[in-house]
User: What shape does this take?
Amino acid sequence: MSLKKLEPLLTAKLTQLQQQGLCKGNEKVITGMKAAADGFGPRYFLEGYGNRAFLRMNSNSYLGLATHSQLIKAEAKAAEQFGAGPGAVRFISGTYRPHIELEQKLAEFHGRESAMLFSSAYTTMTGVLPQFISEDTLVVSDALNHNCIINAIRLSHPASKEIYAHADINALDKILEAYQGRVKRVCLVTDGIFSMRGDYAPLDKLNACCNRHEHAYEQGIITLIDDSHGVGAFGRTGRGTEEYSQGKADILIATLGKAFGVNGGYVVSSSAAIAYLRETSPFYIYSNPITPAEAVAASVALDIVSSDEGLRLLEKLRGFSVRLRSGLEQLGFETLPGEHPIVPILIRDTEKTSALVAHLLANNILVTGLNYPVVPQGEQEIRLQVSAEHSEKDLDYLLATLALQ
Assistant: This one.
C-alpha cells in the first residue's frame, strides 16, 4: 500500500487550483511580537523577513483581547489547575467547571436560556444547522453567506434550498410565498456580519418578513444567524448584529476566536433547543471541547466586554473604523459605509488588487487581498480589519502608504 498512484492526481488538482487562482499559497509564519511603543500599536515579525516588523491589518482580534494581560494570566493559572487539554469529549469526563460557567455566561450575555460550546464556530455551524433540517424543510440562505453555512447545508437533506439576493427582503418574501403548502418547515440562515464586506443582515426586516408567512407553515419558520464577526465588535455593547439591527434570531452562533481573543465557537438558544443539540450534534458529541484554560480566558473576555473598559474599547473601535473609511474616501478609494471594523477597499480588478497588496507588504503592512474567483468578477477587494490595539499613528501610516500607490 502507498500513495504513489494517488499523488500524481493530487498534484494535478493542486496545479488546477493554482491556475484558477484558488490556492492560498505558503502561510506567513509569525515568529514574534513587538509591543506597542512610540504611539504605534503592536508589530509582528515573520519567518523569512528578517527584522522587519509588520502592522497587521488583517487580524480578527477586534478588541485586542488576545494579548490582554488579564486573559493571559487567567489562562495560564487555569492551565496549571486543570492541565493543558480536556482529555476527553464532553460526555466522557471532558466537561470541566469552566465549560459550564462559560456556557452560563454566554447565555446571559445574549439574553438566552442556554448555551453550548464547540471547538470552533465553523464546527458549530456544521454541527447545528443540519439538526434543524428535515426532509420537510426548505432552507433559505443569503447569497453572500460564509462557507461554513454553505457546507452545513450540503451536510443536510432538505426538501429544497433557495438562495436570495444579498439582504434582499423582497426576494425572500417571494420565496416564502411560493413555498406555502409545499413544505412543513422553513429554516432561514444568514451571516450577521458578512465577512468579505463588513455589512450586516437586516435582522429586524428579515424577522418581519418571516412573521408575515409563518402561519402558512405547519412547523413554522426558524431563523439562524452566524454572527462570528459581529459579536464583541459591533453594537454599542458588543452584542453584535442583533443589538445593532434590533432583531433577534431563534438560534445564534458565534465565536470566541475573534473579538473575544481566545478559541472556540458556541450556540445560544432556548433550553429545549440546546438540550436537543447536546444529544444529536456529532461535532459536539464526538469532538473534544476547548480546553478548560481557554474557557476561563473566554469568561474573562466576556467580563471585560461587559465592563466600562469594554465600552471604551468598542467606542475606540467604532471611531477608528469611521476614521479609516473617511481617510480612504478622501484618497479616492471605494469602500462601503458602516461602523464595523471590516473596511473593504473595492478595487474591482485582479492585477490592481494584487499590486496594492504587494505595495503594502513592501511597506510592512499585512492585508488580505480577495481576487476572482474567490470573489465574483468585478468585486475584487482588499479587506482591512481595524483593531482596538491599533493607534491613530497606525491608521495614519496605512493611509500615507496607500497614498503612495
Remarks:
- The first strand starts at residue 30 and ends at 34.
- The radius of gyration is 22 Å.
